[in-house]
Structure formats: structure tokens, C-alpha cells
From TrEMBL:
One of the GO BP terms on file: response to stress
GO CC annotation terms, alphabetical: cytoplasm
Name of this protein: Organic hydroperoxide resistance transcriptional regulator
Entries under Gene3D superfamilies matching the protein: Winged helix-like DNA-binding domain superfamily/Winged helix DNA-binding domain
GO molecular function: DNA binding; DNA-binding transcription factor activity
Keywords linked to the UniProt accession: Cytoplasm, DNA-binding, Transcription, Transcription regulation
Compartment(s): Cytoplasm
The gene coding this protein: ohrR_2
Domain HTH marR-type: 11-140
PROSITE patterns: HTH_MARR_2 (PS50995)
PANTHER family documented for this protein: ORGANIC HYDROPEROXIDE RESISTANCE TRANSCRIPTIONAL REGULATOR (PTHR33164:SF5), TRANSCRIPTIONAL REGULATOR, MARR FAMILY (PTHR33164)
Length: 163
């Protein structure tokens, strides 16, 4: 028995295409990262930390789109591996600053082997750059739309009630 729906086929959904592309990236990165003992999330954290010293946990979380309940255990594990150090900010003790160690920088340098992924994509550098910009714009637009809806809902909730 076939279910009939007004929805297009699943393979025509952009959300499904990006979801499955993300899964494919995970599978493609696994052999590269597995050889050097990293997970994908550890690797992107190393890359982000390699871009700038003295980042706060909050800055890093925003950059990686990770909530603190995901980021904190990740950073703790990476610190136990000796790849980074977390320290209270001298200016504001409420903030935690994260920096790569020498071992973390060496692990990041080791990850250069991941460059092979670009060949697996089958896209030119120009196509890769254009697609990355388009996907980032899509993500940013979706997040901005969610923020606008959240703010509108809060405005309605905060209006005085007339009884």
C-alpha cells in the first residue's frame, strides 16, 4: 500500500540533502582522523583553536555551534590528552580561556592529511568555495529566522494582558 502525500519525494528536500551530505562527510573524514586519533568534533575544535589564541569557551562554542553541555566535556577530554589548557581569565574569573599546547599544535599539524577530502568531493576549488559560501548563507539565514521568531514570540508574551 502506498501512502499519498502532498510532500515532494524525500530526495528533493534540501534539508535531507544537507543532512546526508553531513553524514557522508563524517564517513569520509573518519579514515583520515582515525589514523591520527581524532574525532571530527575534536578536529574542528583544534582547527578553531589554531586560528586564534586566548579564546573563551563561549567564543569557541559560538564558532563551533556547540552548546556548553557538549563543548565542556569535549574540552575536558582534549585537555586530558594534553592538547589544550583551560584557565580562568585574569581579567574576569567567570570566563575560561582555552589555548592549544605544543602537543595540540602538533596534532593539528598532523591533521593536514585531511586535505585529501577535497579530492574526494570532486569539485574544483571555485566550486568548493561557492558551495561553502552558499551553505553558510543558508545556515545563517535559518538561524536569523529562528532568532526573529523567538524575539517575536517573546514580545507577544511580554505584552500586558487586558482582562
Amino acid at each position: 500500500m502506498t501512502a499519498h502525500t502532498a510532500l515532494p519525494p524525500l530526495q528533493d528536500f534540501m534539508c535531507f540533502a544537507t543532512y546526508t551530505a553531513n553524514l557522508a562527510f563524517g564517513k569520509a573524514y573518519k579514515p583520515y582522523l582515525g589514523k591520527i586519533g581524532l574525532t571530527y568534533t575534536q578536529w574542528i575544535a583544534l582547527v578553531a583553536l589554531g586560528e586564534e589564541d586566548n579564546q573563551t569557551v563561549n567564543q569557541l562554542g559560538r564558532k563551533l555551534f556547540l552548546a556548553s553541555n557538549t563543548l565542556t566535556p569535549l574540552l575536558k577530554g582534549m585537555e586530558q590528552q594534553g592538547w589544550l589548557v583551560r584557565e580562568r581569565s585574569k581579567e574576569d574569573e567567570r570566563r575560561v580561556v582555552v589555548n592549544l599546547t605544543g602537543a595540540g599544535r602538533a596534532k593539528l599539524a598532523e591533521s593536514q592529511s585531511c586535505i585529501g577530502i577535497f579530492q574526494d568531493c570532486g569539485l574544483s576549488m571555485e566550486e568548493t568555495a561557492a558551495l561553502q559560501k552558499a551553505v553558510s548563507k543558508l545556515r545563517d539565514n535559518l538561524l536569523a529566522g529562528l532568532e526573529d521568531k523567538r524575539e517575536a514570540a517573546e514580545a507577544v508574551e511580554n505584552q500586558p494582558r487586558i482582562e
